[in-house]
Amino acid sequence: MSNRPVEVHKVAIESVTDASGLARLIDEGVFAADDVLAVVGKTEGNGGVNDYTRILADRAFREVLMERGKRSEDEVKQVPLVWSGGTDGVISPHATVFAHAPEGRYEPTDEPRVVVGVTMSDVINPEDVGRPAMVKTVAAGVREAMASVGITDPADVHYVQTKTPLLTLDTITDAKKRGHDVVTEDTLKSMDISNSTTALGIAVALGEIDEPTAEQIHADLSLYSSVASCSSGVELDRAQIVVVGNARGVGGRFQAGHDVMKDALDSDGIWRAIRSAGLDLPERPHTSDLGDKLVNVFLKCEADPSGRVRDRRNIMLDDSDVHWHRQIKATVGGVTAAVTGDPAVFVSVAAVHQGPSGGGITAAIVDHGA
To answer: Any idea which residues carry the catalytic annotation?
Structure first.
C-alpha cells in the first residue's frame, strides 16, 4: 500500500511527439522520473481506431521516463499512459501527470488529499470485449488499484481513468481462428463498446450497480458510473486503470472531486465537480473565480440518443459527413473551456454507461496550495 503525497500537473503538448513539459517538471525537481504514477492526455489525431498520435505520444513520454529515471524498460512499460485521441474544436493537446511528491515535501494532514492507485488488469481477449467476462476483469483491476492506496470507501473515489483494447481486424481474426466470435466486427463501434463495458466494470467495483447481464451491456442506459472515464485503443491488450481518490492523513496540495453533466450544455455540472474538489465558489461562479487553483477537469460526452438537447433537435446522429464523435467532443470541449478559461481540457467521447445518457461524468482536481 502506498500513501505518499501526490503531485498533479498539466503540461502542454506542442507537437505530436513533444514530451518537453514532462522533462521540464522532472528537471525542475517537481517530482522524479521514477515517481511518475500515470499520465492522462489528449493527442491531436482523429480519435479513431487508426489514431497513431496516441502511440507517438506514448513513445515520447516513455522515452523521457527512461532517459531521466532508473526504472527498467519493462518497468516503464507498466506505467499507465492513457491517451485519448481527438482534440476537436478548441480542445488543446496536453497531458496531466500524476506522480509521488519527493519525500519530506509535505507533512501529513487531516485534509482530504489526492492519492492515485494504478494497475494493469489481466489480459482481455478479443472475444471478451463487450461481454460479462470483461466486466469482471475490469472490476477486479479497479479493486486492486483501490487497495494499493488503502481506499476502502467507494465514496472516496472521484475519477477512474482507463484504457482498454478495442477490436481490430487482426484481433477479430485471431478470435475466429481460436473458435470464438466477437461482439461486433465494426472496429469503430468496438471502441464505444469497449468503453461502455469497462465503465460497467468500474460501476460494479464501486457498488454503483449490480453485475449486469450480457443483454444490458451497451444497451441499458439507466446503468452508469458517475466516476468512470474510459478510453480504448489498439496499443494494449488489457485494461490500464488509474484510480484517483482522496485520503486523509496523507498530505499534499491536491484534492479531487466529481459530478455529472446531465446533458452536453450542463456547465453547472462542471462547476459542481470543481466545488466537490473543495474550492469555495460564489453562487454564480465565473472563470475569474478559479485563479490558478484548477489543475484540470476530465469529462466524458455522448450524443444524446434521442437526437435532442434541451428539447431542441440536432442532426449529429444523422450526419454522414462528420461523425458524431467529433461533433459532440467539440461541443462539450467548448462548453468546458468556457468554464475553465483554458482549452487544455480532457474531453473524451463514447460515454455510454459513463454518466447519464446524453451527458457524462466530470471530475476535477484542485490545487489548494502549500
So the answer is: 163, 231
pTM of the predicted model as reported, rounded to 2 decimal places: 0.96
pLDDT at 229: 98
Between CA 257 and CA 226 the distance in angstroms is: 11
Q: Is the pLDDT of residue 1 over 60?
A: no
Judge whether 175 and 125 are in contact, CB under 8 Å.
yes
**Contact criterion met (CB below 8 Å) for 232 and 85:** no
Mean pLDDT, range 286-312, rounded to an integer: 98
CA distance 116 to 305: 34
- The amino acid sitting at 177 is K
pLDDT of 2: 54
- Which residues on neighbouring strands pair with residue 244, listed in sequence order? 116, 159
Which three-class secondary structure state does DSSP give residue 135? helix
DSSP state of 171: H
| First-residue to last-residue Cα distance in the chain | 25
Residues 6+ apart with CB under 8 A from 365: 8, 96, 114, 159, 244, 254, 255, 256, 257, 277, 294, 295, 296, 297
Exposed e or buried b for every residue in 15-31, given b needs 16+ CB within 10 A? eeebbbbbbebbeeebb
Residue 128 has what DSSP assignment? G
β pairing state of 238-247 and 113-123: antiparallel
CA atoms within 13 A on the CB side of 328: 28
Max Cα distance, the chain (Å): 60
Name the residue type at position 92. S
d(CA 148, CA 370): 26
Rounded-to-integer distance, Cα 101 and Cα 206, Å = 27
